[in-house]
């Protein structure tokens, strides 16, 4: 849960969330027509701006959603020429370790070039949640020495470059009974749902089930 409490733990938690969702910020700035270099500086400058003004620690918790709060802050930052002129760039205690090459590669791979900056930001935020939860699943299965099983079953979750095979084909490939494979897929989908709920809940001021489902609905609409 993101919080407005002005203590060190809350600020560190919020900093970690921003670290996780830096690419939607970059994508938004890039989609406004700025060059890759200016977008990189803008992203770094934005996080420096948040740090310098302790914006996150002073955030009004009633704003509710970190996603929308950060977007409002970003719009303000981009329209404030005086702040931009003094924004810290490239290092110096920033929240994010910026990978310019990866940022531009990800942006170039975006299939929807007609999206507005706002819509692209929402889409990339949603995909960041998907990527982080899939990475968490990968880590869990790897730690349990089941990396191969996860790689085989992952297409059943969607968002995979591998084509989804039928249960019978997967059962034959794994040498498992059909019912066992179906149970594995059921548990995998359940665990992924739990991770997604937890990830989304971390970006809400009041992460109750209704709020999480509402945020998920908006994010899925963006994808």
Task: Put the structure in a nutshell.
This protein has 223 residues and is mainly alpha-helical.
Mean pLDDT: 82
Low-confidence residue ranges: 90-95
Structural class based on helices, strands and sheet pairing: mainly alpha
Assign a percent range to the helix content.
55-70%
- The number of distinct β-strands equals 0
Rg, nearest Å: 20 Å
The number of helical elements comes to: 11
SS strand fraction: under 5%
Q: How many angstroms does the end-to-end distance come to?
A: 23 Å
What is the succession of H and E elements?
Answer: HHHHHHHHHHH
Shape: elongated
For the report, how would you describe the main beta sheet?
A: none
Describe the structure.
There is one protein chain. With 223 residues, this protein is mainly α. Helices cover 67% and strands 0% of the residues. It is elongated, with a radius of gyration of 20 Å. The model is unreliable at 90-95 (pLDDT under 50).
